[in-house]
């Protein structure tokens, strides 16, 4: 019994010693107190405010959320991480403890990592919380597609690398203005490279402005992490390692990754396969198809066009479908009014103005786009069809303006339009279907003699 008791006492002693060591570890003070938590809060606040201000432009679209988060992180948080690391790296010099710490048991590399890693951890934590909130904000009103999780993971890695790089700069440059100037310089350079499509060096930047329909090739995120992480690791080893030649290994990896990024260029991104597919409602005439990236909008779009498609039931010579994929529609298709960029026609997963959307869809059926000048006789006929299918929400206001402020020619045109609308409305159902069938057979004609009259 005595031996058992002694063993238990030893176990408890070891356990208490380990807990005491953990609670009083030097890294704990860096993690829970001081400068690092404030930097994490600054990253979170910067992203939260930026994303909230622009929420209409990304909320509801997964690709839009990815891009908005990526641009905000790269342009704002990378300079912030560099500046924070730089300021934190000069802490020993500002306190006058550099010479004292140089005589401590821990080497330069250990001291640097003990200072830099907690800061990098808080920077990544602030970014992760903001990214999580952004993804959650899009999830409840997503219009289709799926989250792009590799992008925030890559951005988080880049922020950590920027923090380490800034730490080295802060230890090398004995100037209090180094941190703000480093942030300003990084912002200018990253902003320039992000939107300058002429220079191949832009592909080295962690911030690229690409189309929302584009996705990276599978190896691009990993290569970017090797590029940025290799530079940061090389800087750390060159400054603090006992064997400084070891910095050549990550530097070589970064150089190879950078060369691959520059040589590949535009090939780093390609159009998402989803952007070339459609989902359709085949119960209407014409059928209604939306891009698969926004498939959850199909019920809303179909409902918005229901008045138009109901009036076209039984009419011949119509396009087979409304299409919504890149490129020009074929002869038996009409272009569906685009819903992008998000924040205009679609806000947080909802069509903002179904009546306006229906009118634009009706306009897509009219044609005459190849005519150098539309004959006034065709104007009244086209306007009557557009009014019957889906009138312009501002039509009444525009008619009143023509009647009140227009000249003699404007009032004559308004009278011709009103008369044509009335004649089309007065037709019987079968007569109107026959007339509309003849009309849609001539929507590309510029000669008024070939178009049925009203």
Please describe what this structure looks like.
The protein is mainly alpha-helical. 61% of the residues lie in helices and 6% in strands. The protein has 18 helices and 8 strands. The strands form 3 sheets. A 4-stranded mixed β-sheet has the order 3-4-5-6, with helices on one face. The chain has a two-stranded antiparallel ribbon with strand order 1-2. Strands 7-8 form a two-stranded antiparallel ribbon. Helix 2 packs parallel to helix 7 (108-139), helix 4 packs parallel to helix 8 and helix 7 (108-139) runs antiparallel to helix 8 (150-172). The longest helix is centred in the N-terminal third of the chain and has 32 residues, at 108-139.
């Amino acid at each position: 019994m005595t031996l058992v008791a002694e063993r238990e006492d030893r176990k408890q002693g070891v356990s208490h010693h380990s807990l005491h060591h953990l609670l009083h570890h030097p890294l704990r003070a860096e993690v829970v107190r001081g400068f690092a938590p404030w930097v994490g809060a600054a990253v979170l606040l910067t992203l939260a405010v930026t994303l909230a201000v622009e929420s209409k432009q990304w909320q509801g679209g997964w690709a839009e959320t990815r891009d908005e988060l990526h641009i905000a992180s790269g342009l704002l948080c990378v300079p912030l991480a560099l500046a924070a690391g730089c300021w934190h790296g000069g802490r020993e010099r500002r306190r006058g403890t550099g010479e004292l710490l140089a005589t401590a048991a821990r080497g330069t590399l250990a001291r640097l990592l003990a200072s830099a890693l907690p800061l990098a951890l808080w920077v990544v934590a602030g970014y992760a919380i903001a990214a999580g909130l952004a993804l959650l904000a899009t999830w409840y009103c997503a219009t289709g597609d799926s989250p792009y999780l590799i992008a925030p993971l890559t951005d988080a890695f880049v922020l950590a690398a920027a923090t380490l790089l800034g730490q080295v700069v802060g230890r090398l440059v004995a100037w209090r203005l180094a941190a703000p100037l480093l942030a300003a310089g990084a912002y200018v350079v990253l902003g320039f490279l992000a939107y300058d499509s002429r220079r191949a060096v832009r592909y080295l930047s962690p911030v690229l402005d690409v189309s929302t329909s584009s996705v990276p090739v599978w190896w691009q995120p990993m290569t970017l992490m090797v590029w940025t992480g290799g530079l940061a690791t090389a800087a750390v080893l060159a400054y603090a390692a006992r064997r400084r030649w070891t910095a050549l290994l990550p530097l070589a990896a970064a150089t190879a990754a950078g060369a691959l990024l520059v040589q590949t260029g535009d090939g780093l991104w390609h159009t998402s396969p989803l952007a070339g597919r459609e989902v359709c409602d085949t119960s209407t005439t014409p059928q209604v198809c939306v891009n698969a990236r926004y498939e959850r909008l199909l019920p809303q779009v179909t409902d918005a066009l229901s008045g138009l498609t109901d009036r076209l039931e039984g009419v011949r010579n119509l396009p087979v479908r409304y299409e919504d994929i890149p490129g020009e529609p074929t002869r038996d298709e009409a272009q569906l009014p685009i819903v992008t960029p998000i924040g205009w026609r679609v806000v947080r997963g909802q069509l903002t103005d179904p009546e306006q959307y229906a009118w634009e869809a009706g306009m897509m059926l009219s044609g005459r786009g190849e005519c150098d000048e539309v004959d006034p006789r065709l104007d009244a006929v086209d306007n009557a069809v557009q009014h019957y299918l889906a009138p312009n929400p501002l039509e009444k206001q525009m008619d009143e303006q023509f009647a009140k402020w227009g000249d003699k020619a404007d009032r004559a045109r308004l009278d011709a339009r009103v008369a044509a609308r009335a004649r089309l409305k007065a037709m019987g159902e079968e007569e109107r279907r026959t007339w509309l069938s003849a009309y849609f057979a001539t929507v590309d004609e510029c000669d008024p003699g070939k178009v049925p009259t009203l």
